[in-house]
Amino acid sequence: MTSHVKLRKEKVGVVDYDTQIKEVRCQLVDQLKVLDLQLEQKSQQLQDLADYLRRRGEIESEYSRSLEKLAEKFTSRIKSSSEDVSGLKDPSSHSVAQVWLALLSQTRQESRDHNGLSESCSNFLIQPLTHCLEYTQRLAKKSKDICTQLQDGLLKVTTELQTVSEKPTTQDTSRFLNMQNKAVPCVSVCRLGEHTTSTTPTMWPPRGS
Question: Where does the F-BAR domain start and stop, copy by copy (predicted)?
Fold first, then answer.
């Protein structure tokens, strides 16, 4: 009777351990998925920002040219009108002409300002964003490689633990605990590459080992 109870406890312990191993492997897969998802989101955000600045630069450039054409068109008209009334002594005519000149001068200044904004959007801001996107992709690749290496080491240890747990002996108990101690730091380091909170179940040797 006692032997049957002990055997059943051992089987339950092995099943629990196998379940924990599967959970660990699922969490390792989820870690890599999180890294891929974060890279995709950040890359898309940076790409969208670069597209916005590029289009904004084009719009500002078009607006700058339109303002310049508008100023040139009415400047020629004002000069023509001033020449026609140059012989008349009408203070109001000169006053309106001065207002026109001030308005056209302001229009040209706005044209230059928008042209400068166009240059900033098209050149000075897009280039750093491109470098940032490339750096983000390199950093993500390096992080994924490190995480994959650590996961491979962890899976190797857990495979050995599973082998020992299936056929436990007195001599294997010490070896089991040593490998378990190796597995814990691997789990902790793997978590450094994961930006979401997750809990890795604690592993223990099945009863009766």
Answer: 15-209
Rounded Cα distance between 208 and 10, Å, is 6
125 phi/psi in degrees, rounded to 5: -100, -35
- Looking up tokens 């026609």, which residue turns up? 84
The three-class DSSP label of residue 194 is coil
* Spatial separation of the C-alpha atoms in residues 29 and 175, rounded to whole Å: 27
Distance between terminal CA atoms of the chain? 19
CA-to-CA distance for 31 and 154, rounded, in angstroms? 13
Q: Residues 6 or more apart from 53 whose CB is under 8 A from it?
A: 121, 122, 125, 126, 129
pLDDT in tens, 127-147: 888 899 999 889 988 888 888
What is the rounded CA–CA span in Å between residue 140 and residue 43? 10
Contact 119, 104 (CB under 8 A): no
pTM (2 d.p.): 0.58
pLDDT digits (tens, 9 = 90+) for 89-120: 555 556 888 888 899 999 999 999 999 999 99
Residue with tokens 């098209």: 122
Encoded tokens for 89 = 């002594």
| Eight-state DSSP code of residue 195 | -
What Rg value do the Cα atoms of the chain yield, rounded? 37
